[in-house]
């Protein structure tokens, strides 16, 4: 069998020429074996009809196998020549023939160096696309977080608006001023609470000493 991969022929035919020749060889060989079995069966019938024949079936099988080996050796030689002719003249695409799907290569030829440069550029573009996709995903996550913060801020603003409306209803005036007064009052109350706690501690100490 030929060792040439014949890739261009495989692209055109859809199968490798060597595979085609192998199938043809197997088909011829199977036919040869079947033919020898038929010949052996006919000879056995003929020998049974001859009175006094001393040839036994095992002896006939040995003769059949020898003849089959002889036929196979000659068949292999003939098939080798046939394979050479078919691979060269029938299943071979000449070097000057270009398949229709490869015409674009003739119009836009590229050297190995140019092709490698294109491959490198393609890899760089793929990396950039992956980086941009990751950045877009991060931006989307940040946008979702900003949306959540905005919603919380809107809730707080609604709460302040509600407090301001309550202050106006009760004549408290400006909400900011009221809030500042509440803060001062709270600080004063905290100071009074501390004084009370200190006086309470002193009174407890006095009680203990007495």
UniProtKB/TrEMBL annotation:
Keywords, sorted A to Z: Cell cycle, Cell division, Centromere, Chromosome, Coiled coil, Kinetochore, Mitosis
UniProt key word Magnesium: no
Subcellular localization: Chromosome, Centromere, Kinetochore
GO CC aspect terms: MIS12/MIND type complex; nucleus
Domain of life assignment: Eukaryota
Pfam families tied to this protein: Mis12
GO BP terms: cell division; kinetochore assembly; mitotic sister chromatid segregation
Family: Belongs to the mis12 family.
Protein name: Protein MIS12 homolog
Originating species: Tychaedon coryphoeus (Karoo scrub-robin)
Lineage: Eukaryota, Metazoa, Chordata, Craniata, Vertebrata
